[in-house]
Amino acid sequence: MKSIVLGYPRIGANRELKKITEKYWRGDATEDELLRVGRQIKSENWKLQHDLGVDLISSNDFSLYDQVLEMCTTLGCIPQRFEHLDGLHQYFAMARGLQNKEVDVTAMEMTKWFDTNYHYIVPEFTSETKFRMNPDKILGEIKEAKKLGIQTKPVIIGPVTFLLLGKEKEDGFNRLDLLSSLLPCYQELLELISNEGVEFVQIDEPILAKDLSGEEQLAIKKSYSFFANNSTKLKIILANYFDCYGANLNLALDLPVQVLHLDLVRCRLQLDDILAHPLFNGNKILSLGLVDGRNIWKNDYEQSLRLVEKAKEKLDSSQIWIGTSCSLLHSPVNLELESNNEKIPHEVKQWLAFAEQKLGEVIDLTTLANGEEGTIIRERLSDNKRVHSLKRSSKLVHNGEVKKRLKNLKESDSQRKSPFTQRQLEQRNHLRLPLYPTTTIGSFPQTKEVRIQRRKFKKNELSSKAYDEFLFNETHEAIKFQEAIGLDVLVHGEFERNDMVEYFGEHLSGFAFTQFGWVQSYGTRCVKPPIIYGDVSRPKPMTVKWSSVAQSLTKKHVKGMLTGPVTILQWSFVRNDQPRSATCNQIALAIRDEVCDLEKAGIKIIQIDEPAIREGLPLRKEDWGTYLNWAIKAFRISASGVDDSTQIHTHMCYSEFNDIIDDIAEMDADVITIETSRSEMELLQAFVDFKYPNEIGPGVYDIHSPRVPTTEEIENLLERASELLPIENIWVNPDCGLKTRDWPETKLALENMVRAAQKLRQKQLQSV
Question: Of 267, 270, 328, which is closest to residue 294 (Cα–Cα)?
Answer without folding.
Answer: 328
